[in-house]
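Design job #97: recover the sequence.
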């Protein structure tokens, strides 16, 4: 069976976000290629793909004799740090002035509109376009509106859980914390701690809600993947108080997925039974006639 190729749009996006440079050695003069971090070549999610040069790729996948190969965790961490640096170089933002009440209100109206459209999107491409637009707003206009974004996403969880926007929204949440690559580079603030708490709560609720509605795999899985991304950030900043909350949330999502699957099967059994009974009744009516 031929493995699926990485979509060209994802490759292009990765190359831009990594400046067409290996995230391990960061030598801009080397040829690069795409590496599947977890070793599963069918897993073409952005989080599982890293841009590496051929030399470093051999150090990841090949045997190193007495030397140590790059672990999946090392690759993931280097990818995160490098993409953070590239993003800071690519996005030129002038010093922000305090916004007026009217400007802030208008900005929040636009954010709310985009999130509402994301929530009802039943097409992945449409949902991703809304997410990308929200990311542009976030970087250029709304870096201080993280909590407002998370609060608004929390309000539309039932809609996100029923549509394709749920998976995309779950993938968006860790991106709101990419300004926290390492405590040596950026210090965490009290507002960041509040945002982390809101983000974990949002991902757990979205994962549980989507798992209980129907046994959909993508949104709960995206929520657990995003919780892992937050777990990495939490551990790097030694915020151990968040660890039990994240681990408990992952377990809650898994339990909800199992419960949702069982309930769905029971529901389908009832439907099939009802269809058989209906058929029997119609057959009896025909015979009487």
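Job complete. Output follows.
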């Amino acid at each position: 069976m031929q493995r699926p190729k990485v979509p060209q749009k994802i490759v292009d996006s990765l190359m831009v976000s990594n400046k067409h440079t290996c995230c391990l050695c960061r030598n801009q003069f080397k040829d690069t290629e795409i590496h599947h971090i977890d070793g599963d070549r069918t897993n073409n999610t952005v989080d599982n793909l890293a841009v590496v040069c051929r030399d470093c790729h051999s150090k990841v996948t090949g045997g190193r004799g007495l030397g140590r190969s790059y672990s999946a965790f090392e690759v993931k961490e280097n990818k995160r740090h490098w993409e953070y640096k590239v993003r800071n170089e690519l996005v030129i933002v002038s010093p922000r002035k305090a916004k007026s009440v009217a400007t802030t209100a208008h900005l929040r109206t636009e954010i709310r509109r985009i999130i509402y459209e994301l929530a009802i999107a039943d097409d992945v491409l449409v949902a991703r376009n809304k997410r990308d637009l929200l990311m542009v707003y976030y970087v250029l206009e709304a870096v201080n509106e993280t909590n407002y974004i998370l609060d608004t996403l929390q309000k539309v969880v039932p809609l996100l859980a029923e549509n394709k926007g749920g998976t995309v929204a779950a993938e968006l949440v860790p991106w709101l914390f990419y300004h926290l690559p390492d405590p040596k580079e950026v210090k965490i603030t009290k507002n960041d701690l509040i945002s982390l708490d809101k983000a974990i709560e949002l991902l757990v609720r979205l994962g549980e809600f989507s798992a209980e509605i129907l046994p959909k795999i993508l949104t709960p899985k995206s929520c657990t993947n995003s919780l892992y991304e937050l777990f990495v950030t939490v551990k790097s900043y030694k915020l151990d108080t968040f660890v039990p909350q994240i681990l408990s949330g992952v377990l809650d999502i898994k339990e909800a997925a199992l419960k949702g699957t069982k309930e769905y099967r029971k529901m389908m059994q009832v439907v099939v039974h009802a269809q058989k009974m209906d058929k029997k009744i119609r057959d009896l009516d025909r015979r009487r006639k």
